[in-house]
Design brief:
Helix Hairpins
């Protein structure tokens, strides 16, 4: 029989992922069998959530209905009729299989205190460090190397991160047998959930010092100031956040350092403006050169460059210098667009005024 998963959860067809999760949490608490709830309604709510919380399954459901997940179809998250199994629990004639709950297992784990997917023994990461760096306009265009000082938690200089006093032995952890991980199994109403967690005795290292380091007290890290060299790539935009891998803080008792997150600020330039990989500038040109033609020296990000002005060039004309803009990451550069504006002097000599009066009389 076809099921309306949206109706089961009490949400609209346009409900967000967060609304769907909140609705399932409410129903799971309400119909929890251990709290005297209705196992059938709990099963329906779990089945609905396992489909609607998965974007691909939700699209399939919206097109084909719940039949796509029944009778041997693409069962959502291990449900699809809730097949039995050695790790399932029965409530009347309903069996919950705890083998593969997917995201549903994570939600249930948060609610009822177990891990649906297991810890996996993932390596611990240190804290990220955030900082700002200010660049000149030219540094942002062509890139630059900068040295910055960071006061951070890093590997202990005395024990090199081992946590052991100099001359002291580092032995295999007895609890995990040197693997750094322990297996945990927890029986719940949803099944037996197995997970792999970091060993609490050695904190995932698989080994322990016989005598702890006096500098770091066995944690393998210490706070100190260090210099980090940053390579700012060419063409970086203002407000870009650069991620420098493994230059954050080192976690205690081994693990991978966090990252350094560098937010870039770029000073304005009095002569140039930037639009993506294009540069824009304005050059003041004497009226005589615009009218008669000639050459001018224009400012570019690479230095002075001679530009030829054709006879009769109107003020406001734009000349494009190809390949003189901002570098692309994969090679090549954008263009530089130079707008020509007539340079009208505020003060004129007697001779200049006389020459302009003559031009005025001739209609120029």
């Amino acid at each position: 029989m076809a099921k309306d998963y949206y109706q089961i959860l009490g949400v609209s067809k346009t409900a967000s992922d967060d609304e769907i999760k909140k609705a399932f949490r409410r129903l799971a608490h309400e119909h929890h069998p251990d709290k005297g709830g209705d196992p059938l309604k709990f099963k329906d709510a779990s089945e609905a959530y396992s489909v609607l919380s998965d974007k691909q399954k939700r699209v399939t459901y919206d097109r084909f209905g719940s039949g796509a997940f029944e009778n041997g179809g693409a069962a959502p998250g291990g449900f699809g009729g809730f097949p039995g199994g050695a790790q399932g629990f029965d409530f009347g004639n309903i069996n919950f299989n705890g083998q593969d709950f997917g995201d549903l297992g994570d939600v249930l784990g948060e609610m009822f205190g177990f891990s649906g997917r297991g810890g996996g023994g993932r390596q611990k990461r240190g804290r990220n460090i955030e900082m700002d760096v200010e660049l000149s306009f030219r540094e942002a265009i062509f890139g630059v190397e900068k040295s910055v000082k960071l006061y951070r938690q890093t590997v202990c200089h005395a024990c090199k991160g081992e946590g052991a006093e100099s001359g002291s032995k580092v032995v295999e952890c007895a609890k995990c047998g040197g693997s750094g991980q322990i297996k945990q199994a927890q029986r719940t109403m949803f099944g037996t959930f197995q997970s792999v967690a970091v060993c609490p005795d050695c904190n995932g290292r698989g080994k322990k010092p016989e005598k702890i380091c006096r500098v770091c007290h066995g944690y393998g890290v210490e706070k100190r100031e260090e210099t980090v060299n940053l390579r700012i790539p060419s063409g970086v935009d203002a407000d870009t956040v650069l991620q420098v891998a493994d230059q954050g803080e080192t976690p205690t008792n081994a693990g991978r350092p966090g990252d350094l997150l560098v937010r870039v600020h770029v000073k304005n330039d009095p002569h140039f403006e930037r639009d993506g990989h294009e540069l824009l500038s304005v050059e003041r040109v004497p009226f005589s050169i615009l009218a008669l033609g000639g050459n001018i020296e224009a400012e570019t990000i690479d230095g002075k460059e001679t530009i030829k002005i054709s006879e009769g060039t109107p003020t406001g004309s734009v000349i494009t210098l190809e390949g003189k803009g901002v570098p692309f990451a994969r090679g090549g550069r954008g263009d530089h667009h130079v707008r020509l504006e007539a340079d009208v002097p505020r003060k004129l000599t007697r001779e200049q005024k006389k020459a302009l009066e003559e031009m005025k009389e001739q209609g120029l």
